[in-house]
């Protein structure tokens, strides 16, 4: 197979003159396959042409302006590629109309002709009414003619009868002609609606760029016959894909989670893709491709400096740096959301059938439904929330990684309860997902003063004590496995003494390796109530401040 990279060809600087070429052939091509990445696509175009033996010039037409010229490659297995040049001069760009646009414009013309024909038929029908109205006017003038003064009574009677008969006939003709015209015009509203729809379809098709580039290549053919031409290139316009999900939780004795999966593909390359084989790749070619450079770290020591004194007392708080509030973010590796192809360096997923995506439009494809058994519980954080939330736990047993997605709808027994993101989940990994509040589980957290029982805090300059009471009440008609989280302060200084007691004792301390986070787990029956008492004591040396 002979492959020609356009940049390397242009660098050769050797082109055959048109006089040396045996013939020039026009070779239109269409997209047949596209590999879509997170922000670009690799497009494959194909064409066939019957060529005689000899040296020829092929003009490969139809390339959209979104083509990245530096990535363009031409494969012509049955010929030797000699040179190539691409025309990007705006004055010589091909002004092409796609077959879809030609068909849309033909449809509009057909409907407009039908409307004109209906209007002509209605006008013809009404023309008979115009003639009958003229007859009526003549008869009216005839009846008022002064020349009838010498006519006999019998003559006047005959004339009056004739006028009445003719007038009646003319009136009937007018009425019938007008009615026929109205019946014919009843065809116009549906035709006008069809014309509007046809123009809408034309406008959608016409979003495709009509300005195209063309590539001229010189080839040498040794054996005559049909030659297959393949062009590959990358786009520089908006092209991306993303997964989407719907999460449906069915409650009951055996709670089950269904994950309805699909993908959304958007391409705005300026060219419609008709019956194209779509492959989705999790690779990000434009992202970082090599490890970061680690610079050396220079440390030095010096005499301590006094801390600056700020006039604004609020600024003084900035002198003490608290521990980081946020853990460093972890970037999850992307992965496919249906059967992957792991044979290459990256994961790819073929849709399995050809698809058509118009430029500027999003293509949405439903994939499948994954189902798994889940466990659910109610979880509450009384320090911040006055209600408990439904938490569902399940394991990814689908032998493939689930990609992360944003704006995912969450349903419980068919009712929408939340719209939130879905974090990526590796095969075999277990996760917990919140499915909205449980309004029948109420939470109250009160801080009590020991000596008075009122809300508040007992403190002196170097002592702080708190009594906390937490109450959970189940107003629903079902038993809920509960998990309640609260916290006590912790310290890394020996001079700061912290002690606490809880009744009942928490089932877990330092939950998820977060110091001071406590968890209680219990079942809460319908109309049941659970109370937790927490006493906290902090003491430090005189002259120090608690922060």
Observed structural traits:
single chain; 547 residues; alpha+beta; ten-stranded mixed beta sheet; seven-stranded mixed beta sheet; 5 helices; 27 strands; 20% helix; flat; coiled coil; CHP02231; DUF4140; Mucoidy inhibitor MuiA family protein
Give an overview in words.
Residues 34-138 form the DUF4140 domain. Residues 230-542 form the DUF4139 domain. There is one protein chain. Strand 25 and strand 26 form a beta hairpin. Helix 2 runs antiparallel to helix 3 (153-185) and helix 2 packs antiparallel against helix 4 (188-205). The chain is an alpha+beta fold. Among the domains are: 100-146 and 155-205; 374-547, no CATH class. Helix content is 20%, strand content 42%. Strands 16, 17, 20, 21, 22, 23, 24, 25, 26 and 27 form a 10-stranded mixed β-sheet that branches. Strands 1-6-10-4-3-13-14 form a 7-stranded mixed β-sheet. Strands 2, 5, 7, 8 and 9 form a 5-stranded mixed β-sheet that branches. The chain has 5 helices and 27 strands. The protein is flat.
Secondary-structure topology with pairs:
Blueprint lengths: L2 E3 H7 L10 E6 L1 E7 L4 E11 L2 E11 L8 E3 L4 E8 L6 E2 L3 H45 L9 H33 L2 H18 L5 E11 L3 E10 L4 E12 L5 E12 L5 E9 L31 H4 L31 E10 L3 E13 L1 E6 L6 E9 L9 E8 L2 E8 L7 E19 L9 E3 L2 E12 L5 E8 L9 E7 L4 E2 L7 E8 L4 E11 L8
Parallel strand pairs: 2-5, 3-13, 11-18, 16-23
Antiparallel strand pairs: 1-6, 3-4, 4-10, 5-9, 6-10, 7-9, 8-9, 11-12, 12-15, 13-14, 16-17, 17-20, 18-19, 20-22, 21-22, 22-27, 23-26, 24-27, 25-26
Helix pairs in contact: 2-3, 2-4
